[in-house]
Structures are given as C-alpha cells and as structure tokens.
Fold EMAL4 protein.
Amino acid sequence: FPFQTDDSISAASTSDVQDRLSALELRVQQQEDEITVLKAALADVLRRLAISEDHVASVRKSATSKSQPSLREAISMSCITNGSTGSRKTSHGSSLSIARKETLSSAAKSGTEKKKEKAPGQKEKKEESHPNDPNPQTQASPSPQPSSQTLQTHRQTQESKGSAPAKSIKQHFPAEKPHSAWESSDDSQNKPLRAAPKLISPAVKHRYLHLCAFITVSFSCANFSCKLATQLIDIFVSTEGEYIKMFMRGRPITMFIPSDVENYDDIRTELPPEKLKLEWVYGYRGRDCRANVYLLPTGEIVYFIASVVVLFNYDERTQRHYLGHTDCVKCLAVHPDKIKIATGQLAGVDKDGRPLQPHVRVWDSVSLTTLQVIGLRTFERGVGCLDFSKADSGTHLCVIDDSNEHMLTVWDWQKKSKVAEIKTTNEVVLAVEFHPTDANTIITCGKSHIFFWTWSGNSLARKQGIFGKYEKPKFVQCLAFLGNGDVLTGDSGGIILIWSKTTVESTPGKGPKGVYQISRQIKAHDGSVFTLCQLRNGMLLTGGGKDRKIILWDHDLNPEREIEVPDQYGTIRAVAEGKADQFLVGTSRNFVLRATFNDGFLVEVQGHTDELWGLASHPFKDLFLTCAKDRQVCLWNSVDHTLEWTRLLDEPGHCADFHPSGTVVAIGTHSGR
C-alpha cells in the first residue's frame, strides 16, 4: 500500500481507509493460512522421513531373521495376516513365503525391544534399551508369574476328582512395551495379546490361528471389543482333561485340544518372539456420535471407532492409529493449528475390574504422542463434547461431561489446570463451542435450549437464548459462526436460526451489555438439521437427518446446490470440508463418504453398525468373514482392506467358520439356527 501513487488521496476518504483496513485483515488471514499449510507440509515431511527409516529397519530385521526355522515364521506371520500381503504355499514340504505390507500404522520404529526368553540349550537374548525414550514411565511391565500356591490348588482340584495328578501350566503373556515414536505414550495401552504357543499339529495350529485372528480383529469391532483387545490372558493347560482353560478378565473360557493330539506336552513349545501390532481398523463410529470426521492438512481423515483414533490417508490407502485411550472414544476436536487433536472417552473397567476414569487426551497427530491427559477424577460417566478456543490460538479447552448436571469446565490444557467449572442443565447437551472472535464467549446447545456463557477469570455466567416469536425446537442440534460473528444454529425442526449480538441497556452504573437475539430464520431441511460446516470461502454446508440432503449455501444464506445421500448409507451425522471442492460425510450406518456435488459419493470407510460377534479366517486365502448383531455378514479382503461382499441375515449372527475347502462358510445365529 505505501507504494500506491494515489495513497494520499485515498487516505483522505474514510470509506477508503475502511477498505484498506479490510484488505489488510484479508492479507493477514491469508498469511495465517499459508503458515498453517507450511506447518502441515513440514509435518508430512517428518512423517515420510520416519517411514523411510522404518523401511530400512524392517529390511535389516528381515535379513537377520532368515536363519530362524520356517515353521515358526509361518505360524507367527499367519497370526497377523489381517492386513498383511503375502503369497502362501501349502505345507507339503514347501516353504512359506510372506511379504509383509508396511503401512503408516507401523510408523517409525526407533528400536525393537524383545523380552528375555531362555530355554534349555538356547542362548539368552539380551533386552535392548531405549535411552532416547521421552516417556520412560510408559514402559509396560510384564505380568507377574503364577505362584506355586495357585498351581498346587489346581492340582488338588484334579486329584479330588479321582484322577491322577494333572500337569497344569499357567502361562502369562507379557505386555508389549511401546517402542515407536508413532505409538501412544500411555502405559495402559500398547499391550497387544501375544500369540498362543506354537503347535506343530496342523489341526491345533488352525485353532490357535483362528483365536489369534479373533483377538487381532477385536480392535475394530463394536464397543465391547475395545476393552477386550488390551487384556492379558492367563492359560491353564490340563493334559488329563484334554482342554486349555483361558482366563480373560477373570472369566474362564475352555478350549478343547484336538483329538489327534495325544499329549499336549509333546507339542508345546516356548512362546514365539514375534508380537502383534495393530495394522488396520475396519469401521467408523457414526451411529451415536456427531461431528467426528475431519480432514487434516496432511491429507489424512481423522475419525474414531471403539478406543482407537484412526488417521486414514485415502490416497495412499494407509492408516495410522492413536492408541492412548483405555475405553471407547466419544468425541473429537481439532486444534486451530490443525496438528493437535483432543479426544474424550467414556468410563470403563480394566482387566482386574477396577474402574477407568473418563478423561480427555490432547495429542500430536504427527508423532501420535500424548501431550496432556485432562480431567481424571473430574468427569463423570464420560466426555460428551469438547472444543478448542480460537481467539487465543487454542490455549484453552472447554468440555461437557455426561453427568446428570452436564458440567461445563474450561481448561488451560498446556498447564493441565482447570480454570472454571459450572453446571449447565439436566437436559441433554449436544454441542459446545468457543466463539471464534470473542474469547470470553462459550455457547452450548441441546434439548430445548441454547446458552450463551460469558467467561471471566474463574467464573462463568449464563444467558439463555430467547426464541420469542419463533417456535422453540425440541433439540438445538449444531452450531456454526458467520464471518461477522453471528451464531448459526440448526435444530430438530429443520430450521436454521441466525443469532446476532445486540446492545441493550443494563442496570444503572454497569453500562450497556451485549445479548444474542434471533435476527433471521431459514427453513433448511425436512426433518432435523444435524450438522453445519463453515467452508474456507465463507459458504456453508448443512446436513439433514430425515431428508439425507447436503445443501450448499452462499454468503447470503441462499441455497445454491444440493445432493442427497443414498438410503443405504444412512442419515448424515458429520460433514467436513475436503480437498478442493470435495467434502466428507459421516453417516448413521457407519460409512465415511467422500463426495462432490458433480460426481456424487465414494465410500472410503465402512463397517458393522452393532456389536461384532462372529469372525472366521479363510483357510488359505487373504480373506476373513464377520457377522454381527446388525444381521450383516461381511467378507473382507485383508490385503486391500476392502469389502468383497455383504449379505443380510434374517437375524443376528453370533459365530462363523469356513469349511477346510474354503468354499463354504457356516454361520450360527441368535436363535440357534
């Protein structure tokens, strides 16, 4: 501007000064956007460098492991065929060749840590240390060995039945210590189940591989499975009773030894050194959640299912996983810098039956390291919704919990300090957001209400939104903000309301105060307005529930374009801006769709919509089949991570198994069919 020839002339005009100020503001905003993109680009470079290091490490590891027996490698690798590529040959004296597919879920391994295992005639393996580990307290300790009293009690039980003293073995599978910069730093996670003892008999081997595959895929099934995947297993082996008794969360599970095995001790060997690591998650939680799909600047879609937060790159078809949570994740918020992410979880129970506290975890989406854990012994039942502040560059975090009073808390998350706390309402609260320009305003909405909170120091003052002549909705479902600071709300009646801040006279001596009042009403959808998404160009996307429509609104909030989500995908639960003119949609039937108004919808993520009960791995192909309470039967390709086909049963499926020929599968149902 200083180099304009008519600078002095334009400065004399008040309107020109305002125009120049607006241009300067626009320029600052553009520079901020450029800085964000630069940050994201740097993060992506660091991520790709780490992948390169991981590839080199994996090549070195494969070169050193060629001397190991082929049978051990075959059994160990078969346990993680969910998500690995490979070409297999039948075991008639031929060797097994498996080429593992490295994905971003493997991330960068700074070092591999193995537990000491010593057998007669074998050399003792030394445990590698982690001098550079920034989180030494996250190292998981192995489970304690069983006491002689426990084994003696088991023997006495066998003798009391009149049988000969049975040999009983209780084997604890140790937890894996975190060894990757990409993995979670939480000490209660990173405990994948070790594979069952390697068995030489093909029949026994098949049973254990089936169990191992079930434990692996349990990471991606419904709500209950997120607890199952982190548990240690205790095993009792009774050669007299011809069974193996496993204890999971204290509950006994009896697994019978195949009839062609006469003596289990003859085939039992030491635990293999390999450990399971999560590679792929099938599914997304959209049925009972909202606003939980976002596109990061690195090109990854972030969403969650069970206790895993997934970062999915749909161009490269790779996944990374944040595994810090101990129970089901229920909400997600992205920091203004687009790098940090906050996720809130429900309360749960650990393997010993002790309660797990609901909390919020703030973590880095590049390194997948936990930056802060907030709210332990503060929240009740779970975390319902949360949001980062915008006006102060994300310094604060506001959280609504699932207690009866739906407590609103404001945190300085970097200092892990609670700044303010107040009860909101006994009714359901569906959303909470900081105002993008007014740092002291927080807005909550839910069943029959919208509250405007004024935050000052450690106090929060509530002002209820007055609907006046407009019909009061049953639910205010979602929030968004216009560029001028006006608040948009979408409700269960299909209405968008614009709330503008007006100045009214207050009590003498206190001066005027600002109050939000309805300035405009728009009929947007048939049924509810379930989500609002403000685009970078200032336009607005809205998603409807009943009509399943996504509508694009111009700067004056006039409808410009619309598209309807096909019925088989369910209703809309989340809408987010994608690359270029694309947008992302999360649905009630647990689909994540990528779409444009011109080209329609493309499925990126899909899964079951209710608890997953049955799982069967194909005897020789890279396929596995699942069935669930949603009555769906799905056949998955574990190499491409895609759905081969799906069928709908008349009732929920509970279990499944392939015929050894691989051409027929049997499914057991809820009613015994």
